Amino acid sequence: MKKIYLYSRYERFWHWLQMVFIFILIVTGLEVNGLYSLLGFKRAVTIHTFTGLAWLVSFFFFVFWVLTTGEWRQYVPTSKKMLQVIRFYSFGIFKGEAHPVPKRKDAKHNPLQRLSYLILAAAMLPVQMLTGFLYWRYNVWNAWKLDFLDLETVAGIHIALTFAIVCFVIIHMYMTSTGHTLTAHVKAMVTGWEDVEDDQEVFDWEKQ
Amino acid sequence: MMKEFFMQSFVLKKHVAKTCCLMALIMGCFLPPVHGEDGMKPVDKGGFAAMRSQQIKINHSRYEILKQDFTSGDEVTKACLSCHTTADEDFRKTIHWTWLTPGPDAETPMGKAGYSINNFCISTNNMNDKSCSACHAGWNGKEGEINCLVCHGQKEFNMTEAFDDLNYFKAESDDESRDMAQEIQGNIKKTVEDIGIPQRKNCGSCHFYGGGGNGVKHGDLDNSLATPSKDLDVHMAGDGGNFTCTRCHTTRMHEVAGRTYTSPASTTRKSLIDDDLMPKITCESCHSSSPHKILAKMNDHTDKVACQTCHIPAFAREKPTKVWWDWSKAGELKDGKKVKTEDYMTIKGEMRWETNVKPEYDWYNGALRTLTLKDTIDPSGIVQVSKPVGDSHDPHSRIFPFKVFRGKQPYDPKSNRFLAPLLSGNQGYWETLDWESALTLGMKDMNLPFSGTWDFVETTSVFPITHMVAPAANALSCKECHSPMGRLAGIGGVYIPGSSDNAWISRIGVFLAMCALLGSLGHGVLRFLVRKGKGI
Ligand code: HEM
Fold first, then answer.
1. ipTM for the whole complex
2. Domain-located, residue B283
3. Is residue A28 included in any domain, yes or no?
4. Residue-level pLDDT at B1
5. Using one digit for the tens of pLDDT, what is the confidence trace for B16-47?
6. Does residue A111 fall inside a structural domain?
7. Measured between beta carbons, which residues in chain B are less than 8 angstroms from residue A160?
8. Residues B451-466 as b or e (16 or more Cβ within 10 Å = b)
9. Residue A30 CB less than 6 A away from ligand 1
10. How far apart are CA B322 and CA B74, in angstroms?
11. Please, which pLDDT band fits residue B50 given cuts at 50, 70 and 90?
12. What's the 3-state SS for B382-447?
């Protein structure tokens, strides 16, 4: 095993900050939705709104980072090796085969990750933010000429995406355990250093 | 050494205290002003009452014309009118006198003196049912002069009775009677001299007793409001706003605003800042349409939910109100005698009362649709004698609290129209307990046909709840509506987060999340079992 520096400081910071935001939003959002009583409706609403807004603001920084650093290339989808990856998680992983797409600095994500992160970060989360923001500004729809909107629909999309995000989080958390140790991937997101196989060719710039 | 230390620590303490004060001051400058729990307090406490008493005060006891020995109510009124020359013309045009309001057509005026009905005493039978006119603001129903004192007399004193007694004692010649007559005359004089703007108990002398007794009809009006506690009504409480009724029911030329009948009492939702001559004071007049703290979610409710909905959590909070009146059970005697208990009256039927009642809610634009004796009904179901007008698409409608009054009342099964029995007087039902004659006479007074057969149908009527505004701390919590079986369950036309609206999405969502969880767990367990001993 040897280490490569995979995740920059900002990227790690953003990952964990977003995790906290999304966790709070899910917990308070589902309380607002009526699934359980935990904080009390009023408090859940207040926390949800302000966390949502904070996330919205900080997401713009993330977009800026992705665009200016060129990291967006990591999310360009590809079908190359897609089938191998699917085959790996369906069968190979049980036999102890090696991952068909090892992590490297200029390709942090395997094709399956690329696709799901792209859908998440470019579609689901922005739409969730948009519907959340609209939901919050519900009383200004008329003034903004948005009165064709219908709260039940906007809320419906917001709820549906919530559960899609919940599913993502569950699978995502499970997938972190599929490294060479149970916590290897999590450690990488904390320290920035990912372990890769010894026989993997590593260039100097990857070690930083 | 010790002393030095103490001195030092003292100086230090002083220093710290100074710094703290300074910091608090600086921070104070940036903090928004504190307005109590939530939102604004529009009027300084008691300020209005104080202001009122400082307005021009006329001392009526100084007027010679009021120092006469009055022998009848009409004479008193004539004395009033000698100065207030147009008061009587103005007043006779108002609904307080006419008890009429335009109906669906010229031949069908609505109102208590018209063809409207309710499910209490049903109808005044064209003002022939004398007991109904007890509250009419004249000395003798609609005949003769108006009675200025009901509204403007500041002393609680039964003038009609007093004049009867006075004239009786005056006719006698003994000394004792003369003394009595003098005393009564003195009391009449004192009453006539003590005149002012209407107080809560003036309006209450009729409006608290609608339906024939204290609190019977409205649910949010009973004599507990004469001197209410702040818990009962923040606006009218002496230690609250100390509002009289006319504070909100503003009055122009004796026309008192706030009647709720075929048209809304107020069609505009403006604050007094926009228009300080509005004909009717509403919540928004003083509190604006965003009365809560800036960014408070409650402000986003005011487009759909009336203030009353959250701020009047229950009505009849101190004294009971009648909720059920079944005329079909009337007429039963016990040992040959009329029964009169809380739940049953031979002359009226079966009753139910409730205290601290949760309102029912509906869309409401301020108008009510009330049936008349000419409307055809469908007796196979429950008939809505009155119902709120409004719906969720109407920008003037809000979700509003109501008392729904239920009961059974007579109708004509041949014509499917309601029937109006004559109740009081020698020939009224209350004397004769004979439906056939009471209904025949009652319908004759209305000039309407009666087939001679009658039956009873269940009906409901609604009363908008707007008085008894509770302190902010007692307003409804979010959960009262934002929960699956909340107060607004089934109201329709509005999406309520946390209710069961959109619950199907959540159900599918929970199912999918479970699948994801079980799938991941299954994959993990399989991985563990298959690769046992070969790392993870
Ligand atoms: C991962 C992100 C988010 C999740 C999981 C989430 C989840 C939820 C859920 C489940 C509800 C209840 C919906 C209903 O039952 O009608 C809700 C309501 C709401 N959400 Fe979000 N939400 C997220 C982000 C946001 C954002 C970014 C905003 C923008 C400010 C926002 C604003 C709102 C508003 C205003 C409501 C309506 C209730 C309230 O006022 O709190 N949400 N959210």
1. 0.92
2. yes
3. no
4. 43
5. 445 444 444 444 333 333 343 444 455 444 45
6. yes
7. 505, 509
8. eeebebbebbbbbbbb
9. yes
10. 36
11. low
12. CEECEEECCCCCCCCCEEEEEEEEEEEEEEECCCCEECCCCCCCCCCHHHHCCHHHHHHHHHHHCC
| pLDDT value for B27 | 40
Alpha helices, DSSP H only, in B257-336?
283-287, 307-311
Q: How many domains does chain A have?
A: 1
d(C-alpha B332, C-alpha B334), whole Å: 7
* Position B492 in a domain: no
Phi, psi of B470 (to 5 degrees): -85, 160
- The C-alpha atoms of residue B46 and residue A115 are separated, in whole angstroms, by 67
Domain membership of residue A123 (yes or no) is yes
Task: Find out whether A57 and A76 touch, Cβ atoms under 8 Å.
Answer: no
Containing domain of residue A199, as a range? 2-7+59-154+188-206
Total structural domains within chain B: 1
| A97-111, B160-174, B192-206, B322-336: range with lowest mean pLDDT | A97-111
pTM above 0.80, yes or no: yes
Q: Which residues on B lie below 8 Å from A177 (Cβ)?
A: 524, 536
- B388: in domain: yes
B158 by DSSP, 3-state: which? coil
Q: Check: CB of residue B229 under 8 Å from CB of residue B237.
A: yes
Question: Which residues in chain A (61-120) have CB-CB distances under 8 A to chain B?
Answer: 89, 93-96
**Whose C-alpha lies nearest to ligand 1, atom 14?**
A33
Record: contact B497-A32, CB cut-off 8 A: yes
**What is the DSSP secondary structure assignment for residue A191, as one 8-state letter?**
H
CB contact under 8 A, A160 and B509: yes
Residue A203: C-alpha distances to residues A2, A103, B133 (Å): 12, 13, 102
**Sign of the alpha-carbon torsion through A70, A75, A79, A82:** positive
Element (H, E) at B74: helix B73-83
Strands B398-412 and B321-326, sheet pairing: parallel
A56-100 pLDDT, tens digit each: 999 999 999 999 998 888 888 888 888 999 999 988 888 888 888
Residue A196 lies in a domain: yes
Distance from CA of B496 to the nearest CA of A (A): 8
Residue with tokens 């869309």: B363
Return the percent helix, strand and coil in chain A, to nearest 5: 70, 5, 25
Percent pLDDT > 90 in chain B is 70
Tell me if A25 CB under 6 Å of ligand 1: yes
**Which chain B residue lies closest to A28 (C-alpha atoms)?**
B498
Q: Which domain holds residue B333?
A: 60-154+194-476
Amino acid making up residue B333: L
CA distances from B529 to A95, A182, B518 (A): 11, 15, 16
Residue B450 lies in a domain: yes
**Chain centre distance of CA A138:** 27
Residue B349 burial (10 A CB sphere; 0-12, 13-18, 19+) = buried
Report the largest interatomic distance among the alpha carbons of chain B, rounded to a whole angstrom: 125
Q: Do A93 and B527 touch (CB under 8 A)?
A: yes
Task: Tell me which residue of A83, A112, A129 sits closest to A171, measured CA to CA.
Answer: A112
